[in-house]
């Protein structure tokens, strides 16, 4: 630009404010080298700021919070992050993990874990009482689910001694199933799905209780096996479902989860209903009771079989077994002149 304010041909117009009539793009083809030097000097500080900001966006704002929970054995475990490699030591724990949304995180389980179907494809590490520790270590779990009252205490301590985090899950009341779903969801990072499953279970439980809890209690004998004759004690979740359905476990005075009993003791307590698992030997076990026509359950034909997978496992599916149990006990109530 000369002294008179005229623009000299070929000159580069600088500025950048709204009064500039020609953008730097208009002069770029004829003055590319000059533009690169001068425009970079103007935009370099801003470009640096943008680059730094972009890098910061790629970094986590905060480190993942550690997860600390307390198991049914009052032992606390802390995980640096949600568990992604889970081993369960009981079939019901496997079901709970899948129901809580952590099925994809399962890497190993115990024998008889047959639900859902995907669980059958998981590597087996033993059963509820005997575990192959070497196989467990090969699976590199970051969480092990143990069953309170089922998994031997010495095994839990052995696993912990190997540096493995063991979360003990216990179920004493039916509502504990919802609590356990929430707990597993917390340690696996599936809180939303676990919470939804817990709420669905509680709603189903309330509906079942509302339909049957007011019934006059029937004396119920739950038969696990015939030889030896085994039954469940008051701490077993089956006893809670019997109560919900308007019954009473005749061996509720037993503190063990399961225990052998004598035939004489069963006859003396005169059950009004006998319930057994619906495995392939169920029909024979129920027929065997016909030898004792003096028993109220035999006299009225109140002999029932229900899948042990549905009634004995403390998982959401217990509502299916519970409904069948409630309907069976209701049918026993309906027999004219029965009691």
List the helices and strands and how they pair.
Elements: H1 24-27, H2 32-58, E1 67-70, E2 76-79, E3 86-88, H3 91-99, E4 106-108, H4 133-139, E5 143-147, H5 153-161, E6 166-169, H6 176-188, H7 191-212, E7 218-225, E8 230-232, H8 237-244, E9 247-249, E10 258-260, H9 263-269, E11 273-277, H10 282-288, H11 296-299, E12 303-306, H12 308-311, H13 318-334
Parallel strand pairs: 3-4, 3-5, 5-6, 7-9, 7-11, 11-12
Antiparallel strand pairs: 1-2, 7-8, 8-10
Description of the molecule:
The radius of gyration is 34 Å and the shape is globular. Helix content is 41%, strand content 14%. Helix 6 packs antiparallel against helix 7 and helix 7 (191-212) runs parallel beside helix 13 (318-334). It has 339 residues and is α/β, with parallel strands linked by helices. The strands form 3 sheets. Strands 7, 8, 9, 10, 11 and 12 form a 6-stranded mixed sheet that branches. It has a 4-stranded parallel sheet with strand order 4-3-5-6, with helices on both faces. It has 3 domains: 1-59, no CATH class; 67-206, Nitrogenase molybdenum iron protein domain (Rossmann fold), CATH 3.40.50; 213-334, Nitrogenase molybdenum iron protein domain (Rossmann fold), CATH 3.40.50. It starts with 23 loop residues before the first helix and ends in a 5-residue tail after the last helix. The chain has helices spanning 24-27, 32-58, 91-99, 133-139, 153-161, 176-188, 191-212, 237-244, 263-269, 282-288, 296-299, 308-311, 318-334, and strands at 67-70, 76-79, 86-88, 106-108, 143-147, 166-169, 218-225, 230-232, 247-249, 258-260, 273-277, 303-306. 34% of the residues are buried.
